[in-house]
């Protein structure tokens, strides 16, 4: 019995000694022990979560939200006032922070436009059939063919015209006793667009013409062909559409939110896909008074002289219009890169004048129209402020880690 008690006490003693030795070994190797951390990080170091910067503790541990190890807040940012953040020179170079002095300028809005070339509607004509009948022969067989004014484009067989010619011949024979009949017969042929020379030739020959020539009333390009050989046409039916391409139009699409800055007479600089590297300029001659219900655009028209025929209907054009915004003249203008958007708030950072430190102050500003690559500032900045134009997000991230006013919190 005594031997058993001695063995029991010996076992307990060995167990306690083992626990004590293990405690000493593992206690000293724990990297999160405050005594060890104090040798690496200075006293007062703040620990935060890289995923949840709102978590801030005075000692290392685990993030209560995601369970990640807390990390120390680096000393790139130095504590200062609630609206400012001070960065070290290393942090400024790493974030490539750049600043510029803001000033007042005359704002110009850059509006990008896209359009296409079309034929001048004022120089388009439709050649109709003035005489009812059958198309016997076409001398213009395809669209794109060029015709000249007075050129024969078709012949037509018309029984009604043959009868009218016969009436003219008979009226000519009775002209001595009944001159009024001759005048009426001539007038009937005039209404069918026969010329005085053609009527005179019929009277002299005293013979009807079976197939009558249809001549072009204008010079240009056949853009539409409505008939084929052998078709029957009535008086007034369209035969061809002819477009004179010595002048052309370019129609650009302008979205309705850009319309307040566009006016008649503004100059558009544009280029064509078919002529890379070459720019053209023209003034707006017309703006459609309505907005298209489907595309929500209005049409801007410019006119071009096309003597050499280099501008062809259907060509795509891309242009830029620099509109002067008179309502906001002499306002402060800042680049897009300087602004952080947070819903309704617009945030910028200003470098505070300081001799020994780099201190940046957060500002909320009101912005006006978007000029394409910059904004008009309505309030929040004054001329002479040194505005951060590059690396703004890095400054704001440092402010968030410090728990200060930023784009994410007020």
Please report the total strand number as a whole number.
27
Tell me the domain tally.
5
Straight-line N-to-C gap: 77 Å
Largest β-sheet summary: 8 strands, antiparallel
Summing up helix and strand content along with how strands pair, one would put the structural category as alpha+beta
| Uncertain stretches | 28-39
Q: Examine the secondary-structure arrangement and name the CATH architecture of the largest domain.
A: Beta Barrel
Radius of gyration: 44 Å
Assign a percent range to the helix content.
10-25%
Looking at CATH, the homologous superfamily of the largest domain is RNA polymerase II/Efflux pump adaptor protein, barrel-sandwich hybrid domain
Helical segment tally?
7
Strand content: 35-45%
Give a brief outline of the structure.
It contains 7 helices and 27 strands. It has 410 residues and is an alpha+beta fold.
Please give the structural blueprint.
Elements: H1 2-29, H2 34-40, E1 47-48, E2 56-57, E3 71-72, E4 77-78, E5 84-87, H3 89-94, E6 98-101, E7 104-105, E8 108-119, E9 124-128, E10 133-138, E11 146-147, E12 152-157, H4 159-173, H5 179-191, H6 196-205, E13 211-215, E14 220-225, E15 232-233, E16 238-243, E17 247-255, E18 267-272, E19 279-287, E20 297-305, E21 316-324, E22 331-335, E23 340-342, E24 345-352, E25 358-370, E26 374-379, E27 386-390, H7 392-401
Antiparallel strand pairs: 1-2, 1-3, 4-5, 5-25, 6-27, 7-22, 8-17, 8-21, 9-16, 10-12, 10-15, 11-14, 12-13, 14-16, 17-20, 18-19, 18-21, 19-20, 22-26, 23-24, 24-25, 25-26
Helix pairs in contact: 4-5
């Amino acid at each position: 019995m005594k031997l058993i008690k001695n063995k029991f006490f010996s076992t307990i003693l060995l167990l306690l000694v083992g626990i004590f030795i293990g405690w000493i070994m593992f206690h000293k190797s724990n990297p999160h022990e405050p005594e060890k951390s104090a040798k690496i990080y200075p006293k007062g170091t703040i620990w935060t979560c890289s995923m949840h910067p709102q978590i801030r503790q005075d000692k290392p541990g685990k993030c209560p939200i995601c369970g990640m190890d807390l990390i120390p807040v680096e000393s790139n940012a130095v504590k200062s006032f609630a609206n400012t953040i001070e960065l070290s020179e290393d942090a400024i170079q790493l974030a490539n922070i750049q600043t510029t002095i803001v000033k007042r300028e005359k704002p110009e809005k850059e509006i990008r436009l896209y359009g296409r070339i079309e034929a001048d509607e004022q120089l388009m004509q439709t050649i109709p059939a003035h005489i009812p009948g059958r198309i016997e022969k076409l001398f213009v067989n395809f669209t794109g063919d060029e015709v000249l004014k007075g050129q024969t484009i078709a012949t037509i067989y018309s029984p009604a015209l043959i009868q009218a010619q016969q009436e003219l011949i008979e009226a000519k024979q009775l002209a001595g006793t009944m001159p009024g009949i001759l005048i009426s017969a001539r007038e009937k042929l005039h209404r069918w667009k026969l010329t005085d020379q053609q009527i005179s030739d019929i009277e002299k020959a005293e013979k009807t013409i079976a197939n009558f020539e249809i001549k072009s009333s204008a010079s240009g390009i056949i853009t539409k062909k409505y008939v084929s050989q052998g078709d029957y046409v009535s008086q007034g039916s369209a035969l061809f559409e002819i477009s004179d391409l010595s002048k052309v139009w370019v129609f650009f699409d302008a979205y309705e939110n850009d319309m307040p800055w566009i006016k008649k007479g503004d100059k558009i600089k544009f280029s064509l896909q078919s002529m890379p590297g070459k720019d053209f300029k023209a003034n707006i001659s017309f703006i459609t008074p309505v907005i298209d219900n489907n595309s929500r655009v209005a049409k801007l028209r410019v006119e071009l002289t096309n003597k050499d025929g280099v501008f062809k209907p259907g060509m795509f054009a891309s242009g830029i219009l620099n509109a002067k915004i008179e309502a906001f003249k002499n306002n402060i203008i800042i680049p897009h890169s300087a602004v952080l958007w947070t819903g309704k708030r617009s945030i910028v950072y200003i470098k505070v004048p300081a001799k020994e430190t780099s201190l940046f102050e957060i500002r909320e500003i009101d912005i006006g129209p978007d000029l394409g690559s910059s904004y008009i500032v309505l309030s929040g900045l004054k001329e002479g402020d040194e505005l951060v134009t590059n690396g703004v997000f890095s400054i704001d991230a440092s402010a968030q880690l410090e728990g200060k006013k930023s784009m994410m919190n007020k």
